[in-house]
Specification:
Layout (H helix, E strand, L loop, with lengths): L1 H21 L1 H8 L25 H6 L12 H16 L2 H16 L2 H15 L3 H16 L2 H13 L2 H24 L4 E2 L2 E2 L1
Antiparallel strand pairs: 1-2
Amino acid sequence: MAEGFETMMNARKALMLALLLAAAPACALAQQPPAPATQAPAAAVTSSPVPWSSLSPRQQQLLGPMADRWGSLPAARQQALARGSQRWLNMSAQQRSMARQRFQQWRQLTPEQRQTLRNRWQKFKSLPPQQQQAIRQSFREFQRLPPSRRQMLRQQWQRATPAQRQQMIQRAWQTRGQRQMEPMRRFPIIRSGRPR
């Protein structure tokens, strides 16, 4: 009985590790603020090992399946796991549920689809912070649309040619620019010192 429980707990820990490695970057797209412009690119920073003892007890518990081989992991991998475990521990129950769901979706993708997503992520991370923020904002606006409208827009996008997609993007940016001007229109026009 105890062995079955221990096996189940090890499987659960392994799932958590897999979630940290695969799902956390997806969460970062929607939830993390853009990095400051003064921060050096991740590739330019040299990695230094993360001692197991420097991890919090909760991180050590979460990363338990890695404890015996922690010292043999590359420093960059140790840092990624340490950051991912801290991010996981800081998530709410709802965010963790979303991460698990995204991980399941990730596992169902083909290797080609995964590579496409990795390439898109790298392209996004190479954008200036202002553009990253604009994309995040557009994504949040898209999420607020009714499901039927989102589905219609997805289908329209999938049927569009590259030229049509470019036109759709340009129209969206123009609409965004017009909406940013709207708050000024909400105020009543003042003539001769009195509002109408």
